[in-house]
């Protein structure tokens, strides 16, 4: 299913198709981690592990935002040319 949704989303991304795989994979990781936390699989983890997961999610969300901002800058500079 993920490749079906990826293909559908990639066709809508236009000129920024290059970063679509990065955004798709980060979205899958973020969603599955949050789903695991919601399923209360976290209770068996140590506190240090919980912090590591939280830090990892922060890095993924931040990198996704950076890729999105880079796409925005790339599209705005391309339209200015």
- Domain count: 1
Main sheet summary = none
From the N-terminal CA to the C-terminal CA, the straight-line distance is 38 Å
Integer-rounded radius of gyration: 16 Å
The assigned structural class equals: mainly alpha
What would the average pLDDT be, to the nearest integer?
77
Order of helices and strands: HHH
Number of helices: 3
Estimated helix fraction: over 70%
Query: Which percent band covers the strand fraction?
Result: under 5%
Poorly predicted residue ranges: none
The shape, in one word, is elongated
Q: How many strands appear in the DSSP assignment?
A: 0
Please render the helix and strand layout as text.
Elements: H1 2-12, H2 20-38, H3 47-80
Helix pairs in contact: 2-3
Could you explain the architecture of this structure?
The protein is an all-alpha fold and 81 residues long. The chain has one domain. 79% of the residues lie in helices and 0% in strands. The protein contains 3 helices and no strands. The model has no long low-confidence stretch (mean pLDDT 77).
């Amino acid at each position: 299913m993920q490749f079906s949704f990826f293909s559908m989303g990639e066709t809508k991304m236009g000129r920024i198709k290059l970063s679509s795989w990065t955004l798709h994979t980060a979205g899958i990781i973020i969603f599955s981690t949050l789903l695991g936390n919601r399923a209360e699989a976290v209770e068996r983890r140590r506190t240090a592990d919980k912090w590591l997961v939280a830090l990892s999610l922060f890095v993924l969300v931040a990198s996704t935002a950076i890729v999105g901002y880079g796409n925005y800058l790339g599209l705005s500079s391309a339209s200015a040319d």
